[in-house]
């Protein structure tokens, strides 16, 4: 049997939606909502979540299938009865993975576990014991040192990586070279949503460019009530996030905008929104004869399930690349599924390359 064994760092809302989705598609055999039904030989039901790593006392030591429903997670529960598994959540390293204000927010923030923090060797041993194929990084935005710690663990343990957060690893030449030298694939950085604010913003920007309409100014303002938005109240943690989202849109424009004419990023934490994200997108432009026009859009979407579809594909593509001995940043996969890949390209170009690779990989697997 072809299996994909996955470890999750950061058992938050995105992890919850991902694990719930795995159970949902295994139970229902539905294909609705999937970007790719199969990736090479791998179906969604072939993905096993075998290990969780977190620092919250409501999750550490618990079965993974229960920990995903523990606070402060507040995403939609669409698959409440997940069959139990042997996967548990172990204690991780805190480092810069938890902002100070998040430990002062009561039940809506992090309640740190009173357990010794593991060494690198402890995490490596856990990854090896569970025969992990792919590690997915769902740490909070701004977790630079913590992400580096887990990247070192993955390299030592011989594990492929999906870097779902805007800490630059796959797109960093030094890190990318280390994964290539170690013979390990990585997809990153900063996972896109299936149909989210950035992908819609990119699509509108591409449409304007392809129709000869010159974008002069644009913004994307986002609000939400999950721990991601609460974490980003510390503006010092936002540098890479804003850069990632901004570059994803700049890459779709015919001409790069000056910094003062583009504003993209989280705007406000609204507790009662929970995991619902509301995005406001505006583009101001000139068309024929310099005549002005503008478009405004409001998007309301459950944030974490929106990311899970891309994460599930990225995990399977990462495993497939590992099967074939590919290493370093996966170009097409990163471009299609991530906001800050090593090489930006249009969605159309990326999916064309991706589908071609999938067909070749499937032939090779057979």
How would you describe the overall organization of this protein?
This protein has 11 helices and 13 strands. A 7-stranded parallel beta sheet has the order 5-4-1-6-7-8-13, with helices on both faces. The protein has helices at 13-28, 64-67, 120-129, 144-157, 173-182, 197-210, 227-231, 239-250, 303-323, 331-337, 347-365, and strands spanning 4-9, 38-39, 42-43, 47-54, 88-91, 134-137, 160-163, 185-187, 214-224, 262-269, 276-286, 292-302, 328-329. With 366 residues, it is of the alpha/beta class. The model has no long low-confidence stretch (mean pLDDT 95). It is globular. 36% of the residues lie in helices and 21% in strands.
What would the keywords be for this entry?
36% helix, 366 residues, seven-stranded parallel sheet, 13 strands, alpha/beta, four-stranded mixed sheet
């Amino acid at each position: 049997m072809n299996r994909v064994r996955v470890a999750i760092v950061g058992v938050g809302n995105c992890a919850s939606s991902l694990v719930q989705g795995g159970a949902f598609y295994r139970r229902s055999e539905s294909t609705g909502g999937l970007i790719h039904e199969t990736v090479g030989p791998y179906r969604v039901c072939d993905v096993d979540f075998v290990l969780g790593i977190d620092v919250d006392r409501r999750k550490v030591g618990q079965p993974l299938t229960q920990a995903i429903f523990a606070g402060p997670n507040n995403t939609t529960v669409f698959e409440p009865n997940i069959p139990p598994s042997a996967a548990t959540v172990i204690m991780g390293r805190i480092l810069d993975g938890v902002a100070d204000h998040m430990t002062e927010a009561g039940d809506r923030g992090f309640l740190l576990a009173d357990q010794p923090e593991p060494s690198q060797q402890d995490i490596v041993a856990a990854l090896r014991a569970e025969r992990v194929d792919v590690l997915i990084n769902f740490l909070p935005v701004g977790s630079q040192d913590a992400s580096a710690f887990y990247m070192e663990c993955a390299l030592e343990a011989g594990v492929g990586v999906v870097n779902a957060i805007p800490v630059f690893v796959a797109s960093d030449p030094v890190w990318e070279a280390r994964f290539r030298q170690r013979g390990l694939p990585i997809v990153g950085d900063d996972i896109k949503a299936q149909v989210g604010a950035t992908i819609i913003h990119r699509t509108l920007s591409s449409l304007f460019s392809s129709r000869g309409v010159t974008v002069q100014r644009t913004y994307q303002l986002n609000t939400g009530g999950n721990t991601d938005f609460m974490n980003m109240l510390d503006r010092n943690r936002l540098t890479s996030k804003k850069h990632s989202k901004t570059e994803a849109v700049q890459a779709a424009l015919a001409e790069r905008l000056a910094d003062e004419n583009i504003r993209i990023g989280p705007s406000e934490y609204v507790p009662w929104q929970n995991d619902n994200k509301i995005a406001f997108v505006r583009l101001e432009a000139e068309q024929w004869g310099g005549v002005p026009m503008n478009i405004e859009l409001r998007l309301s979407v459950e944030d974490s399930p929106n990311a899970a579809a891309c994460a599930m594909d990225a995990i399977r593509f990462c495993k497939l690349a590992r099967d074939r001995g590919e290493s370093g940043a996966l170009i097409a996969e990163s471009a299609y599924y991530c906001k800050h890949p090593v090489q930006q390209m249009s969605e159309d170009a990326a999916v064309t390359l991706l589908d071609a690779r999938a067909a070749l990989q499937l032939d090779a697997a057979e």
